[in-house]
Structures are given as structure tokens and as C-alpha cells.
């Protein structure tokens, strides 16, 4: 909860929000709740359980989906940037997606945070490094909450393509799950 009484909630379950064109939906939505009202979406996230072996194909495809869903937030809400997270097991990676130039959407990794596995290891979250990571993420999130940009120049910078189906071409069809990069 911040000083204005607004609570940031990250809902990480199958959402009811569907993308009209693709019939796909994100794994989670980053939104703010003020009293009992939801405000606009600030980003999306994907979550996977920890596995014994790494499945880079699934993680890469989730990253492509994050870029797609967050690009749509930028386009539909007329905001310059959006917030994304990718969770795998006890590790959460935070991203910011920004419309930087004419048709160029940039996804940058902010931080990667290790979530404690039990109450006994909760003190590992309160280290100087972990708190700095959380502060950087909070600062980036504050920048995202800025007002909408409705200028003609900003509108001309946005791009609609590619769709999720077209993005599937980027991810290798050969699903060798232990290869470091599937792109």
C-alpha cells in the first residue's frame, strides 16, 4: 500500500481478459486497486512452476507473449511504457516495455528477484541487494503510471503487427528444451 491508499495487486491466475484477435490471454495482469475499483492494466505476466530440467522453449515463448500483450497495452491505452513479469519457480524477472522510437518497442530486463522458499528463509528477501532491486522496480512502476499520451506524433509511432501467430515463427519449432536459446 502506498501513501495514497492505493494497493498494487498482481493477479496471477487464468484471467477472463481475452485478446479479441487471437483468443489468447495472459497468465497474470498487473493492475492497481483503489478501494474496490480496478484501474487500467499496467502490464502482464506469465508464471511457470519449477521443473527439474529447464524448458527454454516454453520460457522463450512466454517472453514473446509478454512482449505482445504489453505492446497492446501501449497501443490501446496510449501510454509510453508497460510493466511485465516472468515467474519461474521461486525466481521472478521484471521487465519494462517501452515505445522508444517510430515502431520500435523495447523490452528491457529490470531485475531478477529470488523469492524465499519457506518462512525460515524469509530473511533473504530483506537483504540490501533485494531491497535495492525492489526499489528499482517500484521506481520504474511509478514512471509507468504517468498520464496518457494522446499526441499525434505518439499515435503515429505505434505499430499493430505482428500477431501472436506471426510471432510463433520466431520461436524454433524444434523444441529442444535444453538449448540455451530457442530464438
Strand order of the largest sheet: 1-2-3-4-5-6
Shape: globular
The major pleated sheet works out as:
6 strands, mixed
**Unreliable stretches:** 19-23
**Strand percent estimate:** 25-35%
Mean pLDDT: 75
Number of strands: 6
Q: How far from one another are the termini? A: 39 Å
Number of domains: 1
Q: Specify Rg, calculated over alpha carbons.
A: 17 Å
Helix content: 25-40%
How many helical stretches? 4
- Structural class, judged by helices and strands? alpha+beta
From N to C, what is the helix and strand string? EEEHEEEHHH
Can you give a write-up of this model?
With 183 residues, this protein is α+β, with helices and mostly antiparallel strands. The chain has one domain (6-167). The protein has helices at 56-77, 128-144, 152-157, 164-167, and strands at 6-11, 28-34, 37-48, 81-88, 91-101, 104-114. A hairpin with a 2-residue loop joins strand 2 (28-34) and strand 3 (37-48).
Compact description:
Helix content is 27%, strand content 30%. With 183 residues, the chain is an alpha+beta fold. The radius of gyration is 17 Å and the shape is globular.
Amino acid at each position: 500500500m502506498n501513501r495514497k491508499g492505493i494497493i498494487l495487486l498482481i493477479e496471477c491466475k487464468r484471467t477472463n481478459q481475452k485478446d479479441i484477435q487471437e483468443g489468447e490471454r495472459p497468465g497474470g495482469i498487473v493492475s492497481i486497486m483503489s478501494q474496490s475499483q480496478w484501474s487500467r492494466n499496467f502490464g502482464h505476466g506469465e508464471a511457470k512452476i519449477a521443473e527439474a530440467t529447464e524448458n527454454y522453449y516454453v520460457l522463450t515463448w512466454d517472453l514473446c507473449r509478454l512482449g505482445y500483450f504489453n505492446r497492446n497495452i501501449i497501443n490501446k491505452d496510449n501510454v509510453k511504457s508497460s510493466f511485465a513479469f516472468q515467474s519461474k519457480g521461486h525466481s521472478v524477472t521484471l521487465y519494462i516495455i517501452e515505445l522508444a522510437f517510430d515502431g520500435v518497442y523495447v523490452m528491457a530486463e529490470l531485475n531478477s528477484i529470488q523469492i524465499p522458499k519457506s518462512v525460515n528463509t524469509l530473511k533473504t528477501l530483506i537483504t540490501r541487494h533485494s531491497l535495492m532491486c525492489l526499489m528499482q522496480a517500484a521506481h520504474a512502476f511509478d514512471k509507468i503510471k504517468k498520464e496518457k499520451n494522446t499526441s499525434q506524433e505518439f499515435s503515429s509511432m505505434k505499430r499493430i503487427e505482428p500477431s501472436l501467430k506471426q510471432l510463433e515463427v520466431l520461436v524454433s519449432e524444434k523444441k529442444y528444451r535444453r538449448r540455451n536459446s530457442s530464438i
